[in-house]
Amino acid sequence: MLTDLAEVAHKVKEIPPMPVVAVKVIELLGDPKMTFKKLSEVIAKDQAVSARILKMSNSSFYAPVRKINSLDQAIVLLGENTLKSLVLAFSLKGISRKFGLVEKMQWEDSMGCAIGARLVAKWYKSADPEEAFMAGLFRHIGRVVMNNIDSEKYQMVIEGVYNGEGTVSELEQSYFPFSHGEIGAAVLAEWNFPEMLIEVVRNHEEFTGEESEEPEYMRMAATVNLADQMCQRLGIGSRLPDHAVEIGECPGSRVLGVDAEQAEQLLEEFNSLFERDRDAFFG
Fold first, then answer.
1. What stretches of 61-165 show up as alpha helix (H) in DSSP?
2. Domains contained in the chain, number
3. Which of 57, 94, 106, 127 could form an SS bridge with 220, CB 3.0 to 4.6 Å?
4. Residue 191: domain span
5. Which residue has the higher pLDDT, 95 or 221?
6. What is the CATH number of the domain that holds 196?
7. What are 105-114's pLDDT values in tens digits?
8. Residue 112: its H or E element
């Protein structure tokens, strides 16, 4: 598997490096001599990331008992795992070479699925919430790379899907040598992510919920699939909501045992959370 992904990375030649602030934060989190002060100093060097983390720490998403006024306080509140996923999330915007409407929709799509996956993981104890957040965040990073490689071709894929010319997977094959799942998996492999997350990203588009020998993988993949379906239903990261999506009938719901009534309750909670904290996520 890793050999195949190395070949993808070699042929694509546009695999982005992990954002600098994320690299430094991950290095620090692996250092036994790490202190919150050092973390704060590293994050503070990226003003956009630090401002978003501070804003996020005051959102209902993390429900602080009092107002968080400093980056130091935010780091203590969030903890190491959450901090890592948020730094990765907020530094992800810097991967795009430009930031117009398409990139804005990609960013909303990534954050929407990350937030949804974290919520699903917490509701159904299907996965570690922060790992689920990252799996949702990166499921479409291959599309970001495609857009960077050739924005005109990527735009043709998007327009073709909306015009009913085929699915994303079918149209990607017409314009790019690899699917966005394969490219995304190659990115995460280059960034030394765990193999399970790599495989979830690689196969998320084809996930059917069929039996697997790895129950941990199945539950993570199901978590991301359910979050993805909620985003499609609500139109998060898309031009319009897709009211035809039946959340309770998607593969993720079947694997996690989510019935139609529970799916609608989950969708309502997700929509409420997303709209309530939209400024913290995207402001």
1. 71-92, 101-124, 129-138, 141-149, 151-162
2. 1
3. 127
4. 2-18+98-282
5. 221
6. 1.10.3210.10
7. 899 999 999 9
8. helix 101-124
